[in-house]
Each structure stands twice: as structure tokens, then as C-alpha cells.
Design a protein that fits this description.
Blueprint: H1 7-25, H2 31-49, H3 54-61, H4 69-76, E1 79-83, E2 95-102, E3 105-112, H5 118-123, H6 131-146, E4 151-157, H7 164-168, H8 171-183, E5 189-198, H9 199-203, E6 210-214, E7 218-220, H10 224-231, H11 238-244, H12 249-254, E8 260-262, H13 273-291, H14 296-308
Parallel strand pairs: 3-4, 4-5, 5-6, 5-7, 6-8
Antiparallel strand pairs: 1-2, 2-3
Helix pairs in contact: 1-2, 6-8, 10-11
Length: 319
């Protein structure tokens, strides 16, 4: 799939491939000339990817070949034993939970999964959890705390499912309960935004001691389309909304919403999946090393203060 900002890159790649094919039968260009064109291609890529607009980065974040939670689980965990159900209603496939071994260490791993094709997307409800998904995640977090296991959550959702059935089963309550419980969960929590992180749907498993974010992921109170529909009554102003929301990693680290930016391969994570898997795995290992010896009282106090300090405001004295 070609994104709009990649049109020049794709055209140049196709031209170089055609020249190489023609040269195989009837050499018209020297190897030096072809290498020169390849260098120009690399320069073009660097230029285009260094000038991405906020909406271009949303397109990268939503690329259908971008790795999802299940891809990370399969590639960073040496072992994974999935746990199902919330012990109240049913299992929610939009959230994957389980015991994992990563780099030789044991974790409770929780990921929001969108699916990769029509069948799996329907099964996963396009990554939009129901309340039982949040209850399942919380059940597994309590299990992790019981056995002194750190928790890792992978955020990637357009938001919690907004349908009537979810509201009837206590969607808002389930998310609020998770926020309260995660704030005081007596075990380290590492949060990584791997894709879209929208509203309470992401925050419901997003309270942690360390929050890392992939370079082209986004974290926002609402999707750009939703924001445009509310503010301008026009969903086509999504690009304007994407810029106004300040939802990308560079904005959020400045505001203290996230702690670290995880660099992606040039053009996005889907261009070099093995590299991004290694980056995420190394990040988890590094954060666990920095948190594992922190006294529990300090861990919880630091987590509390972290979220208390988020956001900025100005006060003005009235005369």
C-alpha cells in the first residue's frame, strides 16, 4: 500500500527496478550510474520522511502492514501463555493478556489487538475493547501483583467500543476502575504506545511507571476525524485537527505525558519489522532494569506524582 507522501519514492523505486531488469538483457546504464540513482533515492527518502506533516504520520500509524500487538508478542516473547476471560461475562478478543518471558524475564503482557484481515478484525472488534476486556486486563494485573511480576501493556486502539451493549455492561465504570487500580497496583508497569492511542480506550490500560511511544504512534483524547467533526462540523478537516491536537511523540514528551520516544525505521515500523521488534524488546528490558530495585512505596509515590504533574495551566488573579 502506497501512502500519499510516498508517491515520489515509489515511482523512483519502480524506475530503478525497471532499469536493473533492462540492464540484465541489454546493459544501457553502468553500475556506477545505477548506484548514483540509488543514492538519490536514499536522499529523497530522508528528505520526505524528515518533513512529514501530522496527518502523514497518522497515515503511517494506520498503515495496514504496521505491526500490531500480536506481532510484537510473537516476536519479542520467548514464551507466551494466553489467559482468557474476565470471570464475569466473557472473553474480549480486542485485548490479549498472558504470561510472557521476554529476554529471560517474566512479565504479564497485555496488548490491544486490531486484527490483520477481515476475519481477525471482526473477531478483535477492530481493537475496540468492551468492558469485559478491561476487566480481563485488570484481573491479570492483580495476578501479576500477587506473583510479583511486572506488567507490560501495548496500546493500539481507536477507543473503547462506544456501542449500547458496552454501555449497558458498564464501559465507563470498567475504565474508571482500571485507572484507580493501576494507579496503586503494587508492581512495576511499563506502557508502550505502538499505534493509535485514543481516549479512555487507551488510558484504561495506560497508567504506568514508564510510558514509551513509538515515533509515529499518536496519543490523543479523540481521533482527528472525531475532533474535526466536533470543532468544525466537518470530518474532512482531519489534517487540521491532527496538527491542532499535538498528539505526536515530540509534543507529548515536552508536556510530560510520555517518558521516551522509540525511533522507528525510516518511513515507519512496517518498513523494517525486525528492527522495531528489537527496539521494543530492548526498551522493556531497560525499563525493567531501572524499576526492579525501586522500593514499593517509592514506586507508587513516583507513579502518583507522575500523573499529578501532567498538563499545564495558567492562573490569573481576579481584581
Amino acid at each position: 500500500m502506497m501512502l500519499q507522501h510516498e508517491k515520489q519514492i515509489v515511482e523512483m523505486e519502480e524506475t530503478i527496478e525497471k532499469l536493473k531488469e533492462q540492464n540484465g538483457d541489454n546493459p544501457l546504464f553502468s553500475q556506477d550510474e545505477i548506484r548514483k540513482m540509488e543514492r538519490k533515492l536514499e536522499t529523497l527518502k530522508t528528505t520526505i520522511y524528515s518533513q512529514l506533516k501530522p496527518w502523514d504520520r497518522v497515515a503511517i500509524c494506520r498503515h495496514p502492514q504496521r505491526p500490531h500487538a500480536i506481532d510484537y508478542i510473537e516476536n519479542i516473547a520467548e514464551e507466551f501463555f494466553e489467559l482468557f476471560g474476565d470471570r464475569t461475562f466473557q472473553d474480549d478478543a480486542a485485548i490479549i493478556t498472558g504470561l510472557a518471558k521476554i529476554g529471560g524475564h517474566k512479565f504479564m503482557l497485555i496488548g490491544q489487538e486490531k486484527g490483520n484481515d477481515t476475519e481477525s478484525r471482526l473477531k478483535r472488534n477492530f481493537g475496540m475493547p468492551h468492558p469485559e476486556g478491561y476487566r480481563k486486563a485488570l484481573r491479570c494485573m492483580h495476578l501479576a501483583a500477587k506473583f510479583n511480576l511486572p506488567v507490560v501493556t501495548l496500546l493500539d486502539t481507536l477507543g473503547a467500543y462506544p456501542g449500547l451493549t458496552a454501555e449497558e455492561r458498564g464501559q465507563g465504570w470498567a475504565i474508571a476502575r482500571n485507572l484507580l487500580e493501576m494507579a496503586q497496583l503494587p508492581t512495576p508497569i511499563i506502557v508502550i504506545l505502538i499505534g493509535e492511542g485514543c481516549s479512555g480506550g487507551a488510558l484504561g490500560v495506560g497508567v504506568g511507571d514508564r510510558i514509551g511511544m513509538l515515533q509515529h504512534a499518536y496519543y490523543s483524547v479523540i481521533s482527528p476525524e472525531g475532533c474535526a467533526s466536533i470543532l468544525w462540523k466537518d470530518a474532512s478537516k482531519n489534517a487540521t485537527a491532527a496538527g491542532a491536537l499535538k498528539m505526536h511523540a515530540e509534543d507529548l514528551i515536552h508536556l510530560g505525558i510520555i517518558d521516551d520516544i522509540l525511533p522507528e525505521p525510516l518511513g515507519g515500523a512496517h518498513h523494517d519489522r525486525s528492527t522495531i521488534f528489537e527496539t521494543v524488546k530492548n526498551y522493556i528490558a531497560a525499563q525493567w532494569e531501572s524499576l526492579k530495585d525501586t522500593p514499593l512505596d517509592d514506586l507508587l509515590e513516583n507513579r502518583y506524582q507522575k500523573f499529578r504533574k501532567m498538563g499545564k495551566f495558567e492562573s490569573q488573579q481576579l481584581v
